[in-house]
Design a protein that fits this description.
Blueprint (H helix, E strand, L loop, with lengths): L1 E5 L9 H9 L4 H9 L3 E3 L2 E2 L11 E5 L17 E4 L3 E6 L16 H9 L23 E7 L2 H12 L4 E9 L6 E5 L2 E4 L2 E7 L8 E9 L3 E8 L6 H8 L24 E9 L6 E5 L4 H12 L2
Parallel strand pairs: 7-14
Antiparallel strand pairs: 1-4, 2-3, 2-4, 5-6, 6-7, 8-13, 8-14, 9-12, 10-11, 12-13, 14-15
Length: about 300
């Protein structure tokens, strides 16, 4: 489907991806950015990057491909459901589960489980590989995330995430003893130029990333903390805490590689999730208890004090 728009004075100076998101109204910014990177957007007949600053009177043409048939299969995988209605579903994701299919993970994902549980009632904004998915947590991070059952719900949650009004509080255990009782890391995050599988903070052209942390308990060689996300970048807590010299225990990517407590992945749990319901506007908040492995780690650290 082909659509054309002419930018007005109110859009002058906006980034192309922001202006086009406003024009389309039914697409998220990440979807628009993919259309641009796929060469499906032209400004005055020429392809431009997402960060192109538009001027009033420019003609934007966008080719929106027809949705491809879903190739991922529903799988009967048990879900720990914290809340569900006709618009959203909140699940407590276990360690080791990938959120959506990607290279090397075509099955056994949360999306496969959601397709079985919800059937066709999942939003399609993020494409056939990520139906319903509005935000993610890492494979080895446990805890809460919300999926959407309609495009309207998806757009509402995406807007709340964009405006930083979604409550996301994590529990983590970092190596070493943090001196300050609380602090904030405000450092942009982007792909590591030397290793595309990793993220890195402090890169000037990275996306702004803000993590607030508070010490809950100190141990001999570790610290139990709560992190509150103001933004939600890939690997944000892991990268930010590592930048302070306190990587998460069990994090073999951003840590030292040593794993003395034999953890299966980083000690990170998405404990509290809150948002305004996309239909009613009511604020909802959910809490997922610490998983067994996390509780065992805390008990062991307390014994070692």
């Amino acid at each position: 489907m082909r659509q054309e728009f002419e930018t007005g004075p109110e859009q002058s100076g906006m980034r192309l991806d922001t202006a086009l998101t406003e024009c389309l109204k039914t697409a998220t910014r990440s979807h628009v950015q993919k259309l641009i990177s796929d060469g499906l957007v032209r400004v005055n007949g020429r392809p431009e990057k997402s960060n192109h600053r538009v001027r009033a009177g420019e003609k934007i043409e966008v080719e929106i491909p027809e949705p491809a048939p879903a190739e991922i299969l529903p799988e009967k995988i048990p879900l720990d459901i914290a809340y569900e209605d006709e618009d959203v579903i909140v699940v407590n994701k276990p360690k080791g589960m990938v959120v959506h299919p990607a290279a090397g993970h075509s099955s056994g994902t949360l999306v496969n489980a959601l397709l079985f549980h919800c059937g066709s009632s999942l939003s399609g904004i993020n494409g056939v590989l990520r139906p319903g998915i509005v935000h993610r947590i890492d494979r080895d991070t446990t805890g809460l995330l919300v999926a959407c059952k309609s495009d309207a719900a998806h757009l509402s949650l995406a807007e709340q995430l964009k405006n930083h009004t979604v409550t996301r509080r994590y529990r983590a255990v970092v190596s070493g003893v943090l001196r300050e009782d609380e602090g904030t890391v405000d450092s942009p995050i982007a792909r590591d130029p030397s290793d595309r599988k990793k993220m890195k903070c402090g890169i000037p052209d990275g996306r702004r990333a803000v993590t607030h942390y508070q010490v809950l308990e100190r141990f001999r060689n570790a610290t139990y903390i709560e992190c509150r996300l103001e933004t939600g970048r890939t690997h944000q807590i892991r990268v930010h805490m590592a930048s302070l010299g306190h990587p998460l225990l069990g994090d073999t990517v951003y840590g030292s590689g040593r794993n003395p407590y034999h953890l299966t992945g980083q000690a990170l749990h998405a404990m509290i999730l809150g948002f305004r319901h996309p239909r009613t506007g009511e604020y909802l908040e959910f809490c997922a208890p610490l998983p067994e492995e996390f509780e065992k780690l805390l008990k062991q650290l307390r014994r070692e004090k």
